[in-house]
Amino acid sequence: MKKIIIAIDGHSSCGKSTMAKQLAKEIGYVYVDTGAMYRAVTLYALRNGLFPDEGIKEAELKAAIDAGKIQISFRFNPETGRPDTYLNGEKVEEEIRQMAVSSHVSPIAALPFVRTLLTEQQQAMGREKGIVMDGRDIGTAVFPQAEMKVFVTASAEVRAGRRYKELMGNAKTEEEKAALDFQEILKNVKERDYIDSHREVAPLRQAEDALVLDNSDMTREEQSAWLLAKYKEIVS
Ligand code: DC
């Protein structure tokens, strides 16, 4: 069967990654979570004090990138059946999902030199096709020629509820659980929607030839079945 590129874009916390991972597993494709790559750069910036007060130390971040000090990779984890994200050889899969990273990632993802670097790496990963990549600009900027494009969305409230549940599940102590605030998460979801859709370089937008999926009222199983059926239509 011919191998294709599957681009899955959409708003934050709409279950894109879960759907994309599931599809990749079912059809034996490589899965790439490009949000994790922007999150890993953000973690590097946080750890290295590149977020003083409100701004970002852009020149220092660029120098670190140019010097090859930010190496992002994925390694398949047989226990979870999913790839884990590594930053300079260290597994950072859990840390990049925490609120500190979520609330700093959009301005990092708006920096043109960060996008250029990560876009090139993503294009290299797709050279052989047989890939499911999820993000914000995959069908528009990274692989405008992708054979299958899906744009996923759901209401902000539904998405904040999903993120809340996920963070609760990841919280290791009662204190961490108690610190989670639904309203704060909802605000973060809305802010990220705004920044992601209004940035100058590769803003989040639906590709003209994308299939749209609003999954506010769908179960995971329904979404997966929908996606698999679309894939089969396209490759048949
Ligand atoms: O999907 P996510 O929430 O893990 O993405 C994290 C951030 O990275 C989000 O603010 C949007 C940004 N992003 C992007 O700009 N382009 C991508 N291809 C993927 C993510």
Written overview of the protein:
There is one protein chain. The protein is of the alpha/beta class. It has a single domain (5-230), classed as Rossmann fold. 49% of the residues lie in helices and 17% in strands. It contains eleven helices and eight strands. It has helices at residues 16-27, 34-47, 58-66, 99-102, 105-109, 112-125, 138-142, 156-170, 174-178, 182-198, 220-235, and strands at residues 5-10, 30-33, 72-77, 82-87, 90-91, 131-135, 148-153, 211-214. Strands 2-6-1-7-8 form a five-stranded parallel β-sheet. A three-stranded antiparallel β-sheet has the order 3-4-5, covered by helices on one side. A hairpin with a 2-residue loop joins β4 and β5. It binds 2'-deoxycytidine-5'-monophosphate (DC). 2'-deoxycytidine-5'-monophosphate binds at residues 12, 34-35, 38-39, 105-106, 109, 135-138, 192, 196.
Architecture blueprint of SSEs:
Layout: E1 5-10, H1 16-27, E2 30-33, H2 34-47, H3 58-66, E3 72-77, E4 82-87, E5 90-91, H4 99-102, H5 105-109, H6 112-125, E6 131-135, H7 138-142, E7 148-153, H8 156-170, H9 174-178, H10 182-198, E8 211-214, H11 220-235
Helix pairs in contact: 1-11, 8-10
